[in-house]
Amino acid sequence: MTIRLMLADDHRLLREGLSRSMRESGFDVVGEAQNGVEAVEMARSLNPEVVLMDVSMPEMDGVEACRQLRAALPDTKVVMLTMHADQNVLANAIRAGACGYLVKDCSTQEISSAVRMAASGETALSPQLAASMLDEVRKLHIAPSREERVVTRREEEVLQLIADGCSTAEVADQMYISQKTVKNHLASIYQKLEARDRTQAVLQAVRLGIVSLE
Fold first, then answer.
1. Which residue segments constitute the domains of the chain, with CATH numbers given?
2. What confidence tier does 141 reach under pLDDT thresholds 50, 70, 90?
3. What is the pTM of this model?
4. What is the rounded distance in angstroms from the CA atom of residue 165 to the CA atom of residue 9?
């Protein structure tokens, strides 16, 4: 099934080029917004599966647009595009509910992969941003009780594979379990670590020393 994708970027040439590339990659680009306010309004109208959102936009920045969009359309995934690995922006994007983070010098293939991962419930972490994200997430004061929320050994294995960049299917293959079982493990992990998505779960697990980012 073709993924319904919406773009939000204030640079017309970049937005049009990205739109063309995404269409050529098989996506249904349903709309193109030029600022954060327009992005939220357009998303409410078009109900895309994934929004590819620039961080720096006029009228409303991408992070605030992501927050409002996710509140209105919780099933719509947001992948953020940023020029620089700014720690504060990345931490705010995590809080806002974005599930993908890419730098703008990445390839079309990397963007396509991130959008597909987002649409299927995966999290796309750009390697260039992982360290900066981890540094900032350490300041988020998410501190679950170790006595109440310790993950099981099996859940640790799932977390480490996710931290290594594996998809749900790849985790299932490596652990010789079904994808449904992987999803059940993730649901349990989210609850124990008080995480909203894979990004928060992995970074919280790293902060607690459960897994490591190579």
1. 4-128 (3.40.50.2300), 146-207 (1.10.10.10)
2. very low
3. 0.66
4. 27
